[in-house]
């Protein structure tokens, strides 16, 4: 389906090997291939452009131009640069969930996988970090979503806040906070309402909930297959409520993972986890190496 970057560059450089050292034009041709590969991997255009600009400089060094394997050298430079952007300054940070009960606010659009991810993350915290977790659904418009979280909670053995019909999102958030303190929970997770599009009502509600819970972590759940849209959603949420990290779902799909690069480059927010399926254990910590490999094809 896709031609990977090594093959693409191989084609460009094969043509050139007979001509001795690489010229600037040769490097430019190689960089065009890099750009196409990024765009095919669903990296947004501005991000692909600035990425290519920064690798061009490194690829014009004599180590590459005089190398007998310039294609491989360029692939390595691109790979290293991808890791640099994807990883940001350092290692992926751990979630800030000391000082119990630590609130985690889960935000995102409807259908992004927010409720599923809330349960997956609760399970992970319970299994791996031995945390006592309480989950609460704040989706007052969709009783089915509240039920869904309760059912998932039962499946994974994590408590959910009892549903009290007629309460507002902020009332539920207050109740969750109180219950988490009284019940001796380490973490409480608030699964906020999603909507099909970002609107003022959604943002006002999330802000009000945020002000009550004062979350240690605000995780945005976005569909990793939506490319540039995912980045726009992240920019919007970060501007309005402030996010501390991102979870990219549906990374088990056909997508090439370019949204991860755009996300990191544009928002500067760390990708904390990736969703790799519908099952409750299909959540993994973000691994820049893996995503870089996928983007390169
Ligand atoms: P919400 O409206 O954002 O709360 O979305 P849901 O959590 O209800 O998820 C919507 C659908 O996406 C469900 O069928 C989930 O099983 C599915 N889903 C969520 N995360 C993933 C993922 O990482 N991979 C796949 N393949 N499906 C997912």
Structure, described:
By secondary structure, the chain is of the alpha/beta class. It has helices spanning 5-16, 24-40, 45-59, 62-65, 70-87, 114-129, 143-156, 169-182, 200-213, 228-240, 258-267, 288-296; strands at residues 102-107, 133-137, 159-160, 187-191, 217-223, 245-249, 271-275, 283-285. It contains 12 helices and 8 strands. The chain has an 8-stranded mixed β-sheet, sandwiched between helices. It is elongated. It starts with a helix and ends with a helix. The mean pLDDT is 90. Bound molecules: guanosine-5'-diphosphate.
Task: Give a quick precis of the structure.
The chain has twelve helices and eight strands.
Which percent range describes the beta-strand content?
5-15%
Report the end-to-end length measured between terminal Cα atoms.
Answer: 10 Å
Quote the average pLDDT.
90
Level of helix content?
40-55%
Q: What overall geometry do the principal axes of the alpha carbons give?
A: elongated
Tally the beta strands.
8
Give the topology string: H per helix, E per strand: HHHHHEHEHEHEHEHEHEEH
What is the spatial order of strands in the main beta sheet?
3-2-4-1-5-6-7-8
**How many helix segments?**
12
Question: Roughly how many Å is the radius of gyration?
Answer: 22 Å
Uncertain stretches of 5 or more adjacent residues: none
Outline the biggest β-sheet: 8 strands, mixed
